[in-house]
């Protein structure tokens, strides 16, 4: 029997989190970080094996009475998001090494590590699940550690923010549960109940049924993504959480939304996906522009970064439903790059807040004169968020736009405004906080530049963004694999290139 690498990969952080609830202090932190690094090694190994074509699928009958399976697999998109997850968690744990030590902290730093590892475990199960019921169980399980990460650490209104997050997520999960039950009803009526995603490809169901099921899944994923109108939980959660929690929330957890749109919505309900495309594209454009305008007007640093993510998720959804190989591949790559760039932004903003003692943008000024390395890191992180050429974020955003242009040129022109606004809100934030004369409060509170630990936190993120900006092929090869498979299932071909008469 082959080694169940995928199961081991997902269970190692979960078992580690349970151990950390029994171990306190410095020893607990060291054990937790060792577990995160071990998971990273296993994750990279799984991705490398997948890229080499080594079969890693695991499937065992789970609840045979209803056709449920414990089924894990690692396709190209799953491999990319697994890689992103195992990179981000050690970075977050290192950034939040001192969390829980401040006066009045509700829980210890080892509790934070335990919850972060638990979230990582459930997220890995989601990214590798090939059974919809297993996917749903892991999807809902991610809410438990996330709720306590928000409610246990952070600002004075963290309990209200955690509750709001939970209510929105439970609402989306409840709608998805109805859709999951609908999947069972459809497959059972065909004589062979199953929740395996592959069994749903080409499954016989009425057009109306498929569209209702699609709507149920898409609603849950739109809450998670988050798309404009269903996003209001995110700015509150980001503002009241620690920067590390916000990184896990936006960098890892929210990717489940766009992942599910590709993995389930387009794959299981191709006709319904094409039917809903016009509305979803408009919704995605609204998300891009709304998030950008809200980021421009934000006065709180953490809320600003959260609104940038609303805008960026709009780009991802736009690329997915533009339904070209290039745009889908770009969206998958966008998920990866967004995870890195948003992590860099949240974490460096967290370093600023810890020094100054305030999240308000106007509380800063002239920081680059007293902490030039911090200012440089903030600038690089901001440039990655606005998709500067030479960074991985530029490649992914360009692929989305170029792919969408083939089928929806007018929509693509409109959504380009989001790129312009990104440059405005990022550079405005940098100018306000970093340039100009040093304010009295900054001179009093910002007394030192980034420490060695803080440099070690942001360095790998920025290095990877630059490396994949110049050498994106290793990740794009995995993204292309999923994009081509999805296009074949949906039954849509890329538009033929337009050739003018005079150029023939």
Description:
The chain contains 22 helices and 2 strands. The mean pLDDT is 91. It has helices at 5-20, 25-51, 76-95, 109-128, 132-141, 143-152, 158-189, 197-200, 207-224, 233-240, 243-253, 255-268, 270-297, 301-321, 325-356, 367-370, 372-385, 392-405, 409-434, 440-445, 452-470, 473-490, and strands at residues 58-63, 68-72. The chain is mainly α and 504 residues long. The protein has a two-stranded antiparallel sheet.
What does the secondary structure layout of this molecule look like, with pairings?
Layout: H1 5-20, H2 25-51, E1 58-63, E2 68-72, H3 76-95, H4 109-128, H5 132-141, H6 143-152, H7 158-189, H8 197-200, H9 207-224, H10 233-240, H11 243-253, H12 255-268, H13 270-297, H14 301-321, H15 325-356, H16 367-370, H17 372-385, H18 392-405, H19 409-434, H20 440-445, H21 452-470, H22 473-490
Antiparallel strand pairs: 1-2
Helix pairs in contact: 1-2, 1-4, 2-3, 2-4, 3-4, 3-11, 3-15, 3-21, 3-22, 4-5, 4-6, 4-11, 5-7, 6-7, 7-9, 7-10, 9-12, 9-13, 10-11, 10-14, 11-15, 12-13, 13-14, 13-19, 14-15, 14-18, 14-19, 15-17, 15-18, 15-21, 15-22, 17-19, 18-21
Brief descriptors of the model:
single chain; 504 residues; mainly alpha; two-stranded antiparallel ribbon; 2 strands; 74% helix; 2% strand; globular
